[in-house]
Amino acid sequence: MWIFVVAAAAEALTGLAALVAPLLVGGLLLGADLNPARAAIARFGGLAFVGFALACWPAGGSGGGAIWARRALWVFQPAAAICLVLVTVTTGLSGILLWPAVAYHAFATVALARPAIARSPLGKDALR
To answer: Most C-beta atoms within 10 A of its C-beta, which of 32, 69, 117, 119?
Structure first.
């Protein structure tokens, strides 16, 4: 399904950006400069994002691994949106891409849940 490719690709691109240019990503997301220690942690986080994206990349199968990858992506999306909102509410940090990132994660949460809802007995009527 297209949303799994989009979600995995978005996380991979975000991870690569944080890995290569953590100061730019910090500025765009949080509107703040990162000191060298924070930049190093952002790079490590970027590496984790790339690994997460690779682990969740659709392999074309429908076995147990594919199901767990979909679940991981679905759990990550609302957690990321909530985390970004909490960062801006508690610290006041907000960059030009913060709210678009929150909106993307909210959209991805719904889009990733849609196939599971459609398969459930109650969900078939809800999606019509």
So the answer is: 69
**Residue-range definition of the domain harbouring residue 47:** 2-126
Distance CA 90, CA 86 (A): 6
Amino acid sitting at position 50: V
Contacts of 21 (CB under 8 A, 6+ apart): none
**Exposure of 27 in the CB half-sphere (CA atoms within 13 A):** 6
Output DSSP code: residue 127. Answer: T
pLDDT per residue as tens digits for the range 27-39:
999 999 889 898 9
Structure tokens at 90: 């508690």
Which pTM does this prediction carry?
Answer: 0.74
And the tokens for 76? 């990550």
Tokens 């459930």: give the residue: 120
Q: How far apart are CA 83 and CA 86, in angstroms?
A: 5
Could you count the other beta carbons within 10 Å of the beta carbon of residue 30?
Answer: 20
